[in-house]
Amino acid sequence: MLFNFRIQQTGLLALFVSFSLFAEAQQTRPVAPVKTPVALRADITIDKVMDIGPLGVRLIRNPKTGEFWYSTFDGNVFRISDFDTPKAAEHKIFSAADHGITRLQGAAFLNNTLFLCGNISANGGKGTKGRMVKYDLSKKQPVLTEVFNTVEYGTNATTFDHGWNALEISPDKKYIYVNSGARTDHGEVQDNNGAYPNARDNGLTANVFRFPVTAENLLLPSEAAELKKMGYLYAEGIRNAYDMAFDAGNNLFGVINSGDYDQSEEMFWIRQGHHYGFPWQMAGVENPQQFSPWVPDPATDLFISPGAHAWVVKYFRNDPDFPKIPAGVKFSPGVQNLGPAANEYRDIATGKIVDGDITGRTVSTFNAHCVPLGLVFDTKKALAPEFRGDGFVFRYGGGSTRPGTNLLRKEGKDLLHLEMQYNEAADNYYMKTTSLANNFNAPVDAVLHGNKIYVIEHGAAGSAGGRIWKITLPR
Residues 298, 304: contact at Cβ < 8 Å? Predict the structure, then answer.
């Protein structure tokens, strides 16, 4: 119980980052000095907008008023007055006591209506429920309306219980999409110290859902077949799309955090009825735990790091009861990265880390453990021709300067430009990926407004807090 409580207190790191960290580490390690981001081109500038409190997760903009808001992992929601001026100030509008979401990871505006989504505790902290609510802010006293609650299911005492998080409104404003991440690292049993025995993922986890924006008072079951029958289960087999965004052509994309095995992080073109492989494969690399007998060992399987949390606590193990791939299911691949950035990968044949620029292979999609977040697209075509209509994403992980750091973790904590093209033969997207700025601290979410990308940095529990930066791109 104490361990589970500490996971929730450590915040964002403990819930979606696949680094080799123990849940308590963020509480005991010294806080790193704040770095100043650096632009890698002369026509790009970076300025600090403001400092904020700790545990910031989402940065959103109210399209009706133009105001910026941000939310925190522990349930607080702030409006920012005089944004992007020296007078910028935050004002707490809601807390977990108001909306009931104690693990708040999703926030989005539809006109002047604020949607919030996350998890609440159940069964004395051993279980959890997903929850979404909305507030109509045009009213003098906003009234909470429940969109959905889920049935209770098992949470677990690990760093891999990702919860309900990313929200995205459809371009026609008829639907809201929500991601519910996996409750496991790679599909293993996670029974929370004996509670909810033999529990793996279920219909409420590792999937993307779609609801009408008018939906109210729904109760979601845990069976995938029932969720499909209700029309809410949109796409399956997605480990954790912690951020989603529509491009200028109204295509939905999501950036994915893979597990502790050295499979690449992916970006999916998320389409209705598609299955993206989890837990049987990630980035085209099969999960070896589905094949029994299997004897995991970093000495013989280089995809397992000796310091990986899932290895240390023995979540990699022989698992003869691992579920089989459902009959007739075809997996959809990730967006293919042509480089030159974020295309290092561990080769299946040799186990060595290689660079796609040298081998000539595409990568599905980003280097392992880079944690892509803050996905945005230039849907308004407001940028210079070089960037017009393109995508941008931040790498939360990597950027290590420690001697001996391998290629998968060397580059990161940067802003990537995604120049994407549809390949008709493959029925998929391919993209050129370039780093535009680096030396960020902990970038978790972003808003593109005009030619400016505003990015919020997560401040760890117990720290002074996070920050919001402004990256100005050429018009």
Answer: yes
pLDDT digits (tens, 9 = 90+) for 168-196: 999 999 999 999 999 999 999 999 888 99
* Number of residues assigned to the chain: 475
Q: Output the six-digit token pair for 454.
A: 């505003």
Residue 421 is encoded by which pair of tokens? 């093209």
Residue pair 475/458 in contact (Cβ under 8 Å)? The answer is: no
Residues with Cβ within 8 Å of residue 214, at least 6 apart in sequence: none
Residue 288: strand, helix, or coil: helix
pTM, to two decimals: 0.94
- Annotate 372-415 with DSSP letters as a single string: EEEEEE-TT--S-TTTTT-EEEEE-S----STT--HHHHS-SSE
Structure token pair of residue 84:
């992007």
Nearest Cα to 337, choosing from 319, 352, 355? 355
- Phi/psi at 331 (5° precision): -85, 135
- Give the residue among 99, 14, 11 at the shortest CA–CA distance from 58: 11
Torsion-angle region of 59 (φ positive above 0: left; ψ -120 to 50: alpha; else: beta): beta
Identify any residues that bridge with 265 across adjacent strands, giving them in sequence order: 366
DSSP string covering 403-462, please? TT--HHHHS-SSEEEEEEEEETTTTEEEEEEEEEEE--S-EEEEEEETTEEEEEEPPPTT
Query: Using CA atoms, how far apart are residues 115 and 190, in angstroms rounded to an integer?
Result: 30
* H or E element in which residue 268 lies: strand 266-269
Which amino acid belongs to residue 422?
A: Y
* β-pair type (218-220, 144-150): parallel
Per-residue pLDDT reduced to its tens digit, 382-425? 999 999 999 999 999 999 888 888 999 999 999 999 999 999 99
pLDDT tier at 368, thresholds 50, 70, 90? very high
Task: Give the pLDDT of residue 29.
Answer: 55
- Least confident among 151-160, 233-242, 318-327: 151-160
Top CATH class of 2-472 equals: mainly beta
Domain spans in the chain, listed from the N-terminal domain onward: 2-472
Write the CA distances from 306 to 198, 319, 344, 352, 353, integer angstroms. 26, 20, 20, 15, 16
Q: Is 244 helix (H, G, I), strand (E, B) or coil?
A: strand
Q: Are strands 113-122 and 127-136 parallel, antiparallel or unpaired?
A: antiparallel
Number of Cβ atoms within 10 Å of the Cβ of 455: 27
Residue 336 DSSP SS3: strand
Token pair in block for residue 207? 């999937």
